[in-house]
Structure formats: structure tokens, C-alpha cells
Amino acid sequence: MTDWTTADIPSLAGKTTVVTGATGGLGYETAMALAGAGAIVILTGRNDAKGLRAIEGICERFPNALIAYEPLDLASLASVADFARRFAAGNEQLDLLVNNAGVMALPKRQQTEDGFEMQLGTNYLGHYALTAHLLPQLRRAKAPRVVNLASLAHRSGTINFDDLQSKHSYRSWRAYCQSKLAMLMFSLELQRRSDAAGWGVSSIAAHPGFARTDLVANGPGANTFQWRIGRLLQPLFSQSAAEGALPTLLAATSPAAEPGSYYGPNGFYEMKGAPAAAKIMPHAKDFATAAMLWDVSATLTGVSFDEIAAAA
Question: pLDDT digits over 49-87, tens only?
């Protein structure tokens, strides 16, 4: 699998896909490749102008692309619910959900519309709620997949239930690592619960390694210590956004991708290289913590997978 490229993506004709945070960077490259394989792609983002430019860019390369833009702010549970309602009104099923959107290394603590720490709320809790809301459409697909973007940062992450929202002590990188660990644990727990409940959903995680995107370079985390280190290491250890999207695309489309697995680059420290199985740190496999995080997430968001599944 180490020589896998976009040329290996099978035909996705007739498949409906949703990619969050798809107006630039990894999400844009992911949406581009899915559209090129014939999928119906709904790319989402917070900026309508960027969304329209993304569609124009994809259509320039693939004139027959079946692609649309929908506004979605993962930092707002109301926006998440609104998007899910719009999607359900126009789509019977969802074959692929790529939970890609994220923010990184915010130097000062910020809150989402719902009072969550911004990185945890955007990177994880918004995606938790979105996936739950879209569960009925996922279950109607023949072989539905959910791909969750984690990060090498999960290796340094800890789920701090005593201060989950970093109200008492905020450090930008620590909060980011927690959010990405949460995404990986969510991905693994979703697979366990899908298997137990018979939802039929394959949940797979991926990370891009050290990809050159605007996530840090142009974001509010610029000029932090991590940003400066990243700029120094970039020439040696980074890869393009298109290359960084390959693990996500493998997880999303390859018949060989295993449910409950994790993919990333195969090079040094998984920072760049061809997509392959990635290392999951032992603390990310803590079933008790994952189950507690799932329950806490349901309480915080007011969204229950079990209730939605039962009502579908």
C-alpha cells in the first residue's frame, strides 16, 4: 500500500460525499480528488467567497465535476444542525463523511458560540455532533465511511476531564493536542459502537503528517514557538497539501482500508511520505476514557447517537 496514489482511487460515480473545511488546504485537495473520481461532493466551510472559489478551481480541472458548496461552521452547534437538516432534505443517503475542518495553535483562549474552547469545539465536538446528525443518511448507504482527521499531535495529547475546556489553564498547543487525541479516540469509539449496534458504518482515522497548508502559516497561531519550529523544519520534513491529503483519500476510498484503523505518511516520524498504516499511541486506545469522552460529548452537545439511531 506504500505506493498508493490518487490514481488508485476507484470510481466513485453515484457516491455522495461531504468534506468539512474544504475551501482550502487538505480539505480542498480531498474534495478535488473525490470529484475527479466521479463522486458527488459537498464541500463545506465558513466563508462563502472561498467556497465559490474552491468550486471554480475544482471545475477548472474537472469540468464535469458534481460539486456544491454549503456553509457550515463547526464552532456553532446551530450551524451544524442546520447543515444536517438541509442535507437530509435533499439527500436520502451519505456514502462518505470526511471530518477534516480544524483550527490550530490559537495563542489566546477563545470560545465557540456554545462556550466550548475553540480548538476542542471546532476540531472535535462540532464533528461529533455533525456525524451523529448525519447517522441516518450514513446508515442508508451501502458501505458508508466516516474519515476523521487526527494528527501526530495526538501523541502528546491528554483528555483532561477536570478542565476539558481549558478554563483554568490554557496553553495553545496542549489544547490542540487534546482536540486531536479526542478525534482519534472518537474515530476508534465510533467503530466499536457501530459494530456493537449494527450501524454498518466504517470509521477510519487519518493524519497528513507535516503538510504545508494555511492552517498555521496564516492563522492566529503564527509566530508562536510551534510555528517558528515548524518554519525551520518545513524544508526538510514537510510535504504539499496534495500529498498530505493522500492518507485521508486512502482511508476514504481504498477497498483495503480497514475499519477502525489509522493512516498517515510512512516516512520519518510519519511527517511525510506515501500513505500507510499509522502508529496509534497506547493512551489513544484507552476504552474507558473513550467511552467517558463519548458520554461527555453527548451531554455537552445535547446530541445522542443512540437516540438518533433509534428515531431513524
Answer: 999 999 999 999 999 999 999 999 999 999 999 999 999
More confident: 278 or 271:
278
Q: CB neighbours (10 Å) of residue 218?
A: 10
Q: How far is CA 87 from CA 30, 70, 83, 205, 208, in A?
A: 20, 9, 6, 23, 28
- Which triple of cell numbers denotes residue 208? 497528513
Over the range 54-67, which residues count as b (16 or more CB within 10 Å of their CB) and which as e?
bbeebeeebeebbb
Strands 16-19 and 96-99: parallel
Q: Which residues on neighbouring strands pair with residue 262, listed in sequence order?
A: 205
Q: What is the pLDDT of residues 184-240, one digit of tens each?
A: 999 999 999 999 999 999 999 999 988 666 654 434 445 555 556 555 655 556 688
Residue 124 in grid coordinates: 472535535
pTM as predicted: 0.94
Backbone angles phi, psi at 253, to 5 degrees: -125, -25
Q: Which residues are catalytic?
A: 176
CA geometry: angle at 280 spanning 277 and 286, to 5°?
145
Helix 25-36 and helix 48-61: axis angle, to 10°? 40
Expressed in angstroms, the distance from the first to the final Cα of the chain is: 37
How many C-beta neighbours within 10 Å does residue 20 have?
25
